[in-house]
Amino acid sequence: MKIISINAGSSSLKFSLINMEDESVIASGVFERIGIDGSYTIKFNGEKYTENVNLSNHNDAVNILLEKLISLNIVNSLEEIEGVGHRVVQGKDVFDKTVIVDNEVMEKLESIKHFAPLHNPANMLGIEAFQKALPNVPNTVVFDTAFHQTMKPETYLYPVPYEWYEKYGIRKYGAHGTSHRYITETMNQILNTDNFKLISCHIGNGASITAIENGICVDTSMGFTPLAGVMMGTRSGDIDPSLIPPVMESEHKNIDDIINDLNKNSGVLGLSGISSDMRDLETAYENGNERAILTMKKYVRRITDYIAQYYVLLGGATAIAFTAGVGENSPLIRKMVCDNLKCLGVQIDEEKNKVRGKQTCISTDDSKIKVYVIPTDEELMIARDTLNLIKNA
Ligand code: ADP
Fold it and tell me: Which one is catalytic: 60, 144, 377, 385?
């Protein structure tokens, strides 16, 4: 059985075609510059196929994708595709799990789309394009927020007027839920039980930390939007909102400009003035650049603060897991974070920590909390959910 995982953005559409018998990726790729001009890159059998094509909308991208699956001999017939799973950024408290798309689901998606105006409408365009192109194939929607729906009100509410929650849905929703769920399920396989306390650290360009107990989310660092929590590549993470008016006034900016600055010009990029990419920061840090050293200290401190907070919240921790671009690939950041956690009995083995992008335990045998590197796989999680739903439909 073959399933396609889709991540549609406003001008892009990423896909992975997965063989569910062995969960291997048959082909993957990206369609870009949709609505501008258009190009695609498809990876298959060790080859990379790239072409400029006219992509006036998401339907064009899906039609060309399906045509290429046949012409490149990736599949013999489109009937081999038995399901399409779509990543959706915001499910609010309307969706707490993956569901098969029907008219009612599309109506619900429509009603919440203004909560993620840059992402949800694009995700919906992807769904509609597949409904048109493959009318007999079920589509599912997998929400970045769904895993966090188990948080309790004292966790997800902000200490602001309660009516803001009642009237406008102002609360913590979190993000990266599909990744944190993948890490939880992988930890379940490693430990052979879901009876564990896990602090899952998804640290990529975007970053979030999640506290998990008995397989469910207890708290997560992102908030009403992904701007909250730890410091990220270009996002500030938690700040005091009172800093906004004086900057607006001095720089003659409006609130949209400031929110844009907090999302795109802050975090590692903003503080260092060097780059948002941790590889560039590490190089500058190793060369003794003072702003890079300051930025690394702040970055690591923010991650450590959340881990410490969740350690207390969970009443201890069985394991800490590092995942995503930085978490999987940066021995330096992992070491700096874990060194800050020595007082909790965390000890990493420097040899084992030299790993990049490979699932492994990096703590010493006598570390009080086990520390793992677990490469995340959101596409596979989306495909697994889709398979489970269509098998039981
Ligand atoms: P996104 O949030 O865009 O999905 P990723 O999880 O792909 O992000 O992470 C991207 C980030 O991972 C890059 O910005 C880079 O900082 C970091 N990264 C990738 N490889 C390395 C590496 N070898 N060492 C340190 N950081 C890395």
Answer: 144
